[in-house]
Every structure is written in C-alpha cells, then in structure tokens.
Write a structure and sequence with these properties.
Layout lengths: L1 H16 L8 E16 L2 E2 L3 E14 L2 E13 L14 E14 L5 E16 L3 E18 L3 E16 L2 E17 L1
Antiparallel strand pairs: 1-2, 1-3, 1-9, 3-4, 4-5, 5-6, 6-7, 7-8, 8-9
C-alpha cells in the first residue's frame, strides 16, 4: 500500500510539474501596472508615491526555468512632510530598469506560479537636479495563465532596491511593483 501511494504521488507530481511540450519556448510580452516607490536622500525621507508604469519583456523557457529580459519606466513625485525641505516639493523622478531575471516555474496544467530574482541597471533622473544609474536587485513572485499554445496572461509582484549617488549623497530607492501583462509564444 505504501509503495502504491508513493507511486501515485510521484506520477501526480510528474504530471503537474513537467512543462507542456506543445507550448513555445521563446516569448515576448508587454506589461503595465503600479509602482509604489519609497525614496530617501541622505537624511531626508520622502512619502511613498504610487504611479503607473509600463514596460516590455522577452524570455526563453527551459523545463522549469525561464531567463527573462525586462524593461520598465515610471515617473514618481517626490514629496516630504518635512517643511524644511521645500526644494524637493513637486520634483519628478523618472525611474527606469533594464535587466535580467531568472524565473523558477511550478507548472500546474494551465496555471504556472513562479518565483523570480534578478539584477539590472536602474536609472534615476530627478528633474532639474541630477541623474545617476547603478546596478540593483529585485525579487518577486507571479503567476502565468496559459491561453492555448501561443498566448498567456501574467500577474507579478516584485520588490526592487537600488542605491544611487545623487549630488555626492546616497539616494536610496525601494520600489514595489505590481504588474499585469500579455505574452506571445513562438
């Protein structure tokens, strides 16, 4: 009885966790969503700002993994409740990311939940002040819903963190993004 139960569990896992052979391996996608940014500059703490962002991605799947290139852009407003930092009130920060992520996929028939982690190149441009770029990390989780062999919908949450040097002072950006997207497989 124990061997039969173990055999059934193994067969079920093999059925659920093996990617579908008929799906394409290469995909292109568009994504959009919200970016919730918390920035700090030297000793100044800014209020959290939520903004829309948009981007694109391209990836290659292999078994239970995918390597994905991502790009996104968002514009945030800097706002502080500290009245002594009036020079920062109303400034806009253009924030972009270009990088690569590794996805670890757990396919279950049509739905594919996954974990993701990556490293990329972040650029921050504070209008009428300064601009910098640096490498940073991101981690997240998501789910992809396959719509046949060529199309899918995706939803993903990620946390991005990068330290930049603006005017020779530390500008830290913590950003949580929540996206939805559409992918085409080839």
């Amino acid at each position: 009885m124990k061997k039969m139960t173990t055999g059934l569990v193994m067969a079920l896992l093999a059925f659920c966790l093996v990617p579908k052979a008929e799906a394409g391996l290469i995909y292109l996608g568009l994504q959009g969503g919200i970016s919730r940014q918390k920035a700090s500059f030297a000793e100044i703490k800014f209020n959290t700002d939520t903004s829309f962002f948009y981007g694109a991605k391209a990836g290659v799947k292999f078994m239970m993994f995918a390597v994905e290139l991502n790009y996104f852009q968002a514009a945030h407003n800097l706002d502080s409740s500290d009245v002594s930092v009036t020079m920062w009130q109303g400034r806009t920060v253009d924030y972009s990311y270009l990088g690569a992520n590794l996805r670890w996929i757990f396919p279950i028939v049509v739905v594919e939940p996954y974990l993701t982690a990556g490293y990329g190149y972040y650029t921050v441009d504070i209008h009428d002040f300064n601009k910098d770029h640096n490498g940073g990390f991101n981690v997240g989780a998501g789910v992809e819903l396959m719509l046949g062999k060529m199309f899918s919908l995706s939803a993903e949450g990620k946390y991005h963190h990068v330290n930049l040097d603006i005017d020779k002072k530390s500008f830290k950006v913590g950003d949580f993004s929540l996206t939805g997207g559409f992918n085409i497989y080839f």
